[in-house]
Amino acid sequence: MPAEQPVVRRAFLLRVSFIAGLGGILYGFDVGIIAAALLFVRNTFALSTHVEEIVVSVVPAGTMVGAIVGGILSDRLGRRVTLLWSGVIFIVGSILAPLSPNVGALIAARSLLGFAIGFTSVTAPVYVSELSPPQLRGTLIGMYQFALTLGIVFANLVGYWFAAAQSWRLMFATGVLPALVFLALVFTVPESPRWLFIKDRTEEGEQVLLSYTDARGAQLLLDDIHLATELRQNQERWTALFAAKARRGIVIAVGFVIGAVVLGVFLGRKVQREAAERTLLRDQGIAAEAVVTRVWRGGEKDSEHRVTYNFEYGGRTYSRSVGTPVKIWRALAPGADLPVRFVPSRPAINHPAAWPSKELPLWLPYLIAAMVAVPAFLLPIPVRREARLLAEGRPAPGRVTGFKKIDQSIRVQYEFRLLNGTVAKGKVNRSKPPVVGAPLCVLYEPENPRRNALYPLSLVRLENVMSRTREKV
Q1: From CA 271, how far away is CA 222, in angstroms rounded?
Q2: CA–CA gap between residue 457 and residue 347 (Å, rounded)
Q3: Does the CA dihedral 394-398-401-405 come out positive or negative?
Q4: pLDDT-derived band of residue 401, with 50, 70 and 90 as boundaries?
Q5: pTM (2 decimals)?
Q6: CATH architecture of structural domain 277-352
């Protein structure tokens, strides 16, 4: 029989998930908005390169400190209290940033935002996991990661909307609205029942469980809490992170994080910087006469046509290499005159006036973000399928009936016998060809034998599920 699952009120789950999602959006927004605002902040405060680096890096630095402090406060004061504090800090930082009279105040405001991000990033996923039923836990936590990506997309859109006005203050101020909604919603949810049970506040924990599920569901969740508490006492060691059982998940999780940062944030920053520079050239650019110093081809197989030119302004010489349309490139030669436009306050921002600049399309960071986010949602599907097979499936003897090569993998075909004597079939991809007739061990769902897999499974360890089953028995 399938394992009994608790029934939880959908409206409550949606509210909790929305709160965690808002935390992820605030995370992504405050990390990503600096990509669009930095150019205008630099012009307002005449920042040096070193100060620019500080303005950008104080948020991840604050996040690191906030995650450490937030983890401690979350264990001592509770998940809900920590989220309330993060909401307050988000609001304060989002108000102070656009009102900053100088760069020091802006750095302090962004440090607060980083601190709030650290609080939220360490507390919101834990809070959602402790309030959600086991069958939805992975999906709801994944929503937080997806919301983080949406926050970066939202930051890019906000930067695009306000780039024409060159209003970095409005860009930062936009974060106040989701922060206010986040704080208001946190007031409407209870404390984590698991944290209450850990703190021996059993009656309060039971009341919280009964507030969003029935008596039977509360008992099932209570059993899950007791089991998790016992496992925590036996396995709460840092070395567990480096065990072979956890290594695959850690590598996948870290890979997604690195991919999101490298392909999302950095690429988005590049696109926003190019858009801001185009705006400055259009609104503030003046004409100058440059001299072509080099006409050359680069890129893969010399497929990119490029030109290097110099021009003088304010007693200094500025040089730049740009991609060039083929027809114009063929007509240029070293020493030829080339009209350009440049920004007087920042002559390094310049471009030939005769042709449009080549820039990354605005939709590219969103596409990259989606490509990173989609696998994060697809990955739990086989994990949940195999976990269900291990928890509810039945074993059956089987044998290999054949195989065929498909691209770089081997499609193995097998059959197995059910308890009623019926023969069922299955297939799986392997890297090496098997021996036809070799015995196999198959796990299948009694209600639907077409859902089956070979044991041992690739993503879920049998001993973890069996140990939980023995504890429940």
Answers
A1: 49
A2: 61
A3: positive
A4: very high
A5: 0.58
A6: Beta Barrel (2.40)
